[in-house]
């Protein structure tokens, strides 16, 4: 009987371990592709109108899923308020200040380095217990990230307002990720509430700044990708991983975003990859292995 139970357990662990690998890999690819499609889309729309359309359409899709699945809406008002607040940090705040940092002459390289500090900031704020190798992994990942984007560090002037916006963007995604860990609401409903609240914020910004928009096939493709693949697909994976795993382990995946985006940029736009960037990618991979070493050992 015990041998049969052990066999069944091993049979179940196989697909679960495969899924545990596929989800982070799929998330990194989806999230990394966002910068490429935003680069296409911003040729035809200002950031605020782009973000508003992305959040509005995403919330419409998610509410459709909620009602199709007949998800119960009888949650406490306090929980709805907490979910809305989480969305203000994780969706509206993070993305608004991200675009504002770029608008105030912060180079993508410097911005990526600032945002790449999220795993370390998450580890400090949550005070999760970590082994020495995991701390070494976090430092290696940050070092690798700096190498990946080092070529763009001194290309543009750095403004104080831009640095503040970049810091607020980092704070938004970090606090939002930590707050998301406490939410036990059904994920489609959770995301629908967050996206709806964030879309309302962007709507008022659109009214205030009256941004320009030119409808083209390329913009529609860009917007569709950002809605379906990034806002819905990648965010669902992110929220599922936050619920199931250590916050530091999940946050460490953001180290991979910059090198994967660089690879996509190389293949799509022909941007060159120098040996320094390749060395940085190797350090990031080593760092991720060390950060997730405890989780891998526990799953065996």
UniProtKB/TrEMBL annotation:
Keyword annotations of the record: Membrane, Transmembrane, Transmembrane helix
Name of the featured protein: Drug/metabolite transporter (DMT)-like permease
Entry similarity comment: Belongs to the EamA transporter family.
Tagged with keyword ATP-binding: no
Main subcellular location of this protein, as a coarse class: membrane
Location in the cell: Endomembrane system
Regions that span the bilayer: 21-42, 48-69, 81-100, 106-125, 132-149, 155-179, 191-209, 215-240, 252-269, 275-291
Metal-binding listed as a keyword: no
Residue stretches making up the EamA domain: 25-149
InterPro entries for this protein: AA-Vitamin_Transporters, EamA_dom, EmrE-like
Membrane topology term: Multi-pass membrane protein
